[in-house]
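Weekly modeling sync, notes
Attendees: S.R. (lead), two postdocs, one rotation student

Agenda item 3: backlog of single-chain predictions. S.R. asked that every request posted to the team notebook include the full sequence so nobody has to chase files. The rotation student volunteered to paste the first one in as an example of the format we agreed on. Action items at the bottom.

Example entry:
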Amino acid sequence: MTAIRSIFEVARRDFLQRARNKMFLIATALVVLAILGGGLLVATQVGDQPAIDIGHVGTPTTALPGVLEAVAEYFELDYQLHEFESREAAEAALRDGDIAVAIDGRTVVWEQETSSLTNAMVTTALQELERQDTIEALGLSSDAVTQLLSPAPPAVETLEEPDPDRAVRQGAATAGTAVLLASILMLGQFVLLGVLEEKSNRVAEVVLSRVRPIELLAGKVIGIGLLGLVQLLVFAAAALALVSMIDRADLPNLSEVGLSVILSVVGWYMLAYAFYSVLYAAAGSLVSRQEDVQGVGWIPMIGLVPAYLLAISAPQNPDLLIIKIGSMLPALAPVVMPARYAAGDAALWEVGVAILVTAASTYLVILFAARVYRGGILSTGRTTLRDAYRRASV
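Predicted structure, as returned to the notebook:
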């Protein structure tokens, strides 16, 4: 059997075995539902606000509806004004939840807690009425009133053009980083546990009678990696479907931003998975019992934990030196750089350098991990990293 054929058979076996895993299927389905359901819920919450029911004790002045209309338009809110014959009737409507707030003359009445947005709207309207009454009492001319209330605004200059999509990209960067890291952690555990299972039940001995250790390692990493890629594409399809369902006039480039983030996450996933999966495989070859997994599972976490901490801070703090340096380091770049790039804070040359450094380092890590794997896969009991590395040369 040729090396390519051996790798293909091992990859196919691991792909199908893990793809049939119920926990994997359930987890994938739950994430898809979370993307669609959670995204639509957020979009609904930040979308059009329901009309605010405002009560008024007695017949409102002729000026109040016009002032409320102008203020509501400024705050981009809708409202309905309800008249009550007495303060007691308005308070009863407040307690029953029929209205959000009541106006009694120049007094604003709440049931218990105030809404900052509604409070700002009602307070601004009453202040405007008070201002109009004062202007009328002073007998000022319309020109004087205009000059007093609407002075010429100052000139505004910006050194750089504002980016209207920055907030969207920051949110997409955070979500993409979380999905990327979750995929690496889950699939890395698949690799680690798969190596451990084959070693503990002696399946590895049977397989290694027909294929070389490097072929077994390559097939396992490729098979589970392809499964992870399929899973990411499913998540990407769900995200794009969500984007297509959200119709927001203030987010005109949402589809373009979402697609660019998805492509970035998928591309970096392949580099990140190649880097960390072989470390998980090498770690799994050092132990023979399930109880010892925690003792070696920390090895890949040395890079993943700081990478995640830097990645979640990158969109809000792009100029921090530690984040810029972290996005160039091989163990951190696959997680930190996509967060920086998705948020629009990384130049193309920085992305290119990070890719080259990560690819070169991945090659060296594969050589090291393959040797550890070769020295540890057939050992009995727990093996130290140094012993496995030395045994491979014998």
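Discussion: group reviewed the output briefly. DSSP finds 15 helices and four strands in the chain.
Action items: rotation student to repeat for the remaining queue; S.R. to check formatting next week.
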